[in-house]
Amino acid sequence: MGVVLLRRSVVLLPRSVAIRGKQVVHALGASLVLAGVLACEIACADPGLLLIAHGSPSAAWNQEVLDLGQRVAEEVGKTGEFCAVRTAFLEAAQPDVPTALAELEAQGCDRIVAVPLFIAPSGHSHFDVPLVLGTFFSPPIAKALAEEGLRAAQPKVPVMVTCTLDEGDLLPQFVIDQVRKLSKAPQDEALVILLHGDPDHQLLIERLMRRIATQACGATGIQYADWASIGMGMQDFRTQGAFAISRALEHKRRVLVAALYLATSAEEIHRRATARHGQSAHDSPSNSPQNSTDNLFDGDVVFSAEKLISHPGLLAWVVQTARAAVEDPSKTAKVATPGIKNRAAEKSPEVVHSR
Questions:
Q1: What's the rounded Cα separation, in Å, for the pair 106 and 87?
Q2: Tally of CA atoms within 13 A in the half-sphere of 259 that contains its CB
Q3: Do residues 131 and 108 lie in contact, with contact meaning Cβ atoms separated by under 8 Å?
Q4: Which of 104, 237, 283, 307 suits a disulfide with 241, CB 3.0-4.6 Å?
Q5: What would the pLDDT profile of 115-167 be if each residue is shown by its tens digit?
């Protein structure tokens, strides 16, 4: 018998196989060689999946992310396409990225797909995440992260980072679903979307939000939409969020407020902002065109209680994005979330952005 070594596979060939140059003339031998190649690919295809979220001082917030990781592990476990799944936090919580990456390597993963659970491109997704993964280095960024107590991994296997959550239809569908749960009379309503944003990626955020707002209006019949960037400290709510809501009330009698955060709802943002300022967050900012009273912005304002992390589309997006990265790393995954059907409105929606 002859022996052909193909990485981890051993293929036994009958002695009757005659090989002239590079041409295999024995059909059985050719079949066995092909089978050996395929067996090798299967044996060596042991990718690991790493979900990366920002992290929070709130144990409850972090637990929601860990729970998502468990659901992802259960879903991909049905097909066995990933050797192991881990969830990590960039900062403020454990496990951190180097720890989770080392655990995947210890599980035998020969490559790792890292999915950043960030709403849109930002300094975190472009620089911080690749640096702690050990796939990128910048002296000033490394110094800044080290001062925050973050460390970089030293991966022994290839690591691929996927796109952020803005790719595909996940975010528009999530906003549409929030609106549909709250809407009563679209012709009399406006939509305001709250999100974190990143000043250094403002142009990307503007394009993303205009796309989401336009799709949401087209799908729900709402004719006015705006958005505002609110940091997790909520200090921007009165200067940005409340101003956008007050302006929307100048155009419509009722305002629906949705949020684009991983595990924080618009309702939570409003509640935290109210507690932070020790008064109603409905009080309009000083640069607002009007000063409203305690409980209303001189109109009906409804804050959504929905969280993206609980939306079924997020699980599907993560799994499909990771699968696409494994199947064809040269192509960016475009993940479609079923359900978006824009309908023609009687007039074009007014999509604005308060500055």
A1: 15
A2: 25
A3: no
A4: 237
A5: 999 999 999 999 999 999 999 999 999 999 999 999 999 999 999 999 999 99
Please tell me whether the overall predicted TM-score, pTM, comes out greater than 0.85 for this model. Answer: no
Sheet containing strand 189-195, edge to edge, reads 300-303, 254-260, 189-195, 224-229, 350-351
SS3 86: strand
- Is the backbone peptide bond immediately before 158 cis, with ω within 30 degrees of 0? no
- DSSP state letters, 257-296: EEEE-SS--HHHHHHHHHHHHTS-TTSPPTTSS----SS-
Delineate the domains of the chain, giving CATH numbers in brackets: 2-44 (no CATH), 47-161 (3.40.50.1400), 170-308+338-351 (3.40.50)
Instruction: Pick out the chain residues at pLDDT < 50.
Output: 1-44, 280-294, 296, 329, 332-333, 341-346
